[in-house]
């Protein structure tokens, strides 16, 4: 009976990210990526949990050693640490694994790669939360947290795909700017998400709705403007 309960909770935790992965995969209409590559990216997202946990524990230990005003502490603990560390590690994994990948030959590929890494991380994080807190946590996270990670991945991947295209056209300065954007913008969006979630009530819901609208527009534009990366 206990095993059945655990399996049910794990399934409940994994279904939302897998559904979103399927949606992103189907949006890649011109040339879909090899399954083995996507699996490797998903698993890299899973493994990214470990350095993220270590870095966040170290960062939390550091800020706990000082006296801060309550709002400053909340800003550091819920904006800086989760946003910049989680998105920074995911960006590092994404850049190192995919930038020179031969299959990275269309701009939308960046979105696919980033979302698979982001949801690999989100899946294992979700399993941990759900096993600790139960089915109700799975429902809440399916509505907010899992889509949040997917949206940060879309933002990161869209910038990476554009940066790859610019690099192929020898636009070095614009490439560097887009690569910075691929990390910093998701980090800021993620930090705001967690910071507002702490206790800002309706402000968070307005922010979440605005983020959904922005990312859906970005996703539609990325699909519409998808094309080959010349020189690859």
Model regions low in confidence, pLDDT < 50 over at least 5 residues: none
Portion in helices: over 70%
What structural class do the secondary elements suggest?
mainly alpha
- Kindly, what is the distance between the CA atoms of the first and last residues, rounded to a whole number of angstroms? 54 Å
Structure description:
The chain has 232 residues and is mostly helical. It contains nine helices and no strands. The chain has helices at 2-27, 35-47, 49-64, 70-98, 109-133, 135-143, 145-168, 172-197, 202-224. Helix 3 packs antiparallel against helix 4 (70-98). The longest helix has 29 residues, at 70-98. The N and C termini lie far apart (54 Å).
Short description:
This protein has 232 residues and is mainly alpha-helical.
Write a concise keyword list for the protein shown above:
232 residues; mainly alpha; 9 helices; globular
Fold blueprint:
Layout: H1 2-27, H2 35-47, H3 49-64, H4 70-98, H5 109-133, H6 135-143, H7 145-168, H8 172-197, H9 202-224
Helix pairs in contact: 1-5, 1-6, 2-5, 3-4, 4-5, 4-8, 5-6, 5-7, 7-8, 7-9, 8-9
């Amino acid at each position: 009976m206990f095993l059945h309960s655990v399996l049910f909770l794990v399934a409940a935790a994994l279904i939302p990210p897998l559904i979103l992965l399927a949606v992103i995969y189907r949006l890649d209409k011109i040339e879909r990526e090899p399954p083995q590559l996507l699996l490797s990216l998903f698993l890299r997202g899973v493994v990214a949990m470990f350095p993220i946990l270590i870095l966040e524990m170290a960062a939390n230990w550091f800020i706990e050693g000082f006296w801060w005003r309550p709002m400053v502490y909340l800003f550091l603990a819920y904006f800086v640490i989760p946003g910049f560390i989680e998105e920074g590690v995911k960006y590092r994994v994404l850049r190192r694994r995919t930038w020179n990948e031969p299959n990275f030959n269309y701009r939308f590929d960046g979105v696919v790669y980033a979302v698979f890494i982001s949801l690999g991380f989100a899946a294992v994080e979700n399993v941990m939360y759900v096993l600790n807190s139960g089915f109700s946590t799975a429902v809440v996270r399916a509505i907010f947290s899992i889509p949040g990670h997917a949206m940060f991945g879309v933002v990161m991947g869209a910038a990476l795909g554009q940066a790859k295209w610019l690099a192929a056209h020898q636009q070095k300065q614009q490439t560097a700017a887009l690569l910075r954007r691929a990390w910093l913008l998701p980090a800021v969006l993620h930090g705001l998400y967690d910071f507002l979630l702490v206790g800002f009530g309706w402000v968070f819901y307005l922010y979440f709705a605005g983020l959904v609208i922005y990312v859906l527009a970005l996703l539609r534009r990325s699909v519409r403007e998808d094309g080959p990366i010349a020189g690859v």
